[in-house]
Amino acid sequence: MDHWKHMLPGRIFDIQHEELAADLNTGTRRMLDYCRLTFQRACLSLHETEHTVNTASLAQVRQPLYASSVGRWKHFEIHVQRLLMVLKTDSTQ
Predict the structure, then answer these.
(1) d(CA 35, CA 32)
(2) CB neighbourhood size of 32 (10 A)
(3) Is the Cα torsion angle 19, 20, 21, 24 positive or negative in sign?
(4) Under 8 Å CB-to-CB from 1, ≥6 apart: which residues?
(5) Gap between the Cα atoms of 21 and 33, Å rounded
(6) Alpha helices, H only, 11-50
(7) Inter-residue contact 19 to 27 (CB < 8 Å)
(8) Model-level pTM?
(9) Which label site among 35, 36, 37, 88 has the fewest CB atoms less than 10 Å from its CB?
(10) Nearest of 16, 20, 14, 77 to residue 44 by alpha carbon
(11) 41 pLDDT exceeds 60?
């Protein structure tokens, strides 16, 4: 992401899944404000859309945003220690 932020300064909006899961209304409004779009109540219930979804995540798209996966990666932390170290080193350069 550092590369894209450098290539497209001011054009990347960062938001964490945890932030959205904790407060969908505020996070959604922040995203829409950034994109200069108007808030509509339907933005908070995307899972209710009747539009066709052609992705492998179809089952997830049809569910409300959930927080049950927040922090789940920590179950695998021991297996990704080297990767985390590399990412941490790269982000400080």
Answers:
(1) 5
(2) 14
(3) positive
(4) 12, 14
(5) 18
(6) 17-22, 24-34
(7) yes
(8) 0.67
(9) 36
(10) 20
(11) yes
